[in-house]
Amino acid sequence: MKKNIVLILLVGISMIGCGSSLEFTELPIGGNIEAKDKSGQFVSFKSFQEPVLLVFFGYTYCPDFCPNTLAKIKAAVEPLSAEEKTKFKVVFISVDPVRDSPETTTKYVQFYLPQSIGLSFSEDTTNQILKQYAAYVQKTEDGQSFDHSTYIYVLDKNRKTRKLIKSTDSKEVITKSILALSGDSVQAK
User: Fold this and answer.
1) How far, in Å, CA of 162 to CA of 52, rounded?
2) Is residue 185 within 8 Å of 177, Cβ to Cβ?
3) Which ranges constitute the DSSP H helices of the chain?
4) 18 among annotated binding-site residues
5) Which residues are Cu cation-binding (predicted)?
6) Any binding-site annotation on 62?
7) Domain 2-182: what homologous superfamily?
């Protein structure tokens, strides 16, 4: 637990003063996932053809942050050309494996973005992934909703996390991140 808190603090401190700049570095969290989803399908981020993945944690019953973030991503990619839209995929990972199936989660996220996939894993696998990404999730007192982090993790073609986009960042940060990382012009530091 202390190790996770230290890691979160280090990432947070490294981001202070960065604002909405387009600095890319290899972050020590996130990255590739290799696991079976709840339907028994093997999932590996490395098998996706798109050079950029936008990974986001949420759940289909979320009343605010999830739909707002997905709408922001949708608005951010609307100005992209058809060719540029093939350069990324949104990966929505459910933090509510009890209620969200892979099919329901995919249908939910594709309502906003056709170039996306929704994933739902067992509770144990979900917890391992959350730890890997240093993502915060806490069930609320009513037991029906979750408080959760709202970062968009931007992964490059090698499935290294290169940027965390905050929910307060502009949609242009999303657009520019996709274009920069999909163009092979940004090298790992």
Assistant:
1) 10
2) no
3) 2-15, 65-77, 102-112, 123-132, 171-182
4) no
5) 62, 66, 148
6) yes
7) Glutaredoxin (3.40.30.10)
Q: Which two tokens stand for residue 51?
A: 């050079």
Per-residue pLDDT of the chain (189 residues; tens, 9 = 90+): 444 443 443 444 344 334 445 788 899 999 999 999 999 999 999 999 999 999 999 999 998 999 999 999 999 999 999 999 999 999 999 999 999 999 999 999 999 999 899 999 999 999 999 999 999 998 888 878 898 989 999 999 999 999 999 989 999 999 999 999 998 555 444
State the Cα–Cα distance between residues 160 and 102, nearest whole angstrom.
24
For 61-74, b where at least 16 C-beta lie within 10 A, e where not — what string?
ebeebbeebbebbb
Helix (H, G, I), strand (E, B) or coil at 45: helix
Write phi, then psi, for 138 (nearest 5 degrees).
-145, 125
Q: Helix-strand-coil percent breakdown of the chain, rounded to 5? A: 35, 20, 45
Q: Do residues 52 and 154 touch, judged by C-beta distance below 8 A? A: yes
Residue for token pair 């940004």: 186
